[in-house]
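Page 47, continued from p. 46.
Same chain as before, 92 aa.
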Amino acid sequence: MSNYVVGTQLRLIATFTDVNGNLVDPTSVTLYVKDPTGSVSTIGNVIRQSIGVYYFDYSFVTSGVFHYRYVGAGAVVAANEGTISIKKSDVV
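Result:
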């Protein structure tokens, strides 16, 4: 888990592979972000970077620990998760 400061925009990346480890595209990809209060946002407009690689640029406007989960459905059923810690600014 990395530490970042409020106001940071980070690229949340997910990769999807088949059972042989080859990059593959799910039919649909959804990103869920849980903020420090426990509220979950659903983001369906993630960007396909290349075969099996998806991302979304997320802006962190509050401090605390955030959890995110990418879910692939359809042709590939898989999930990726991560955690990011956002701290308050020491300046403002």
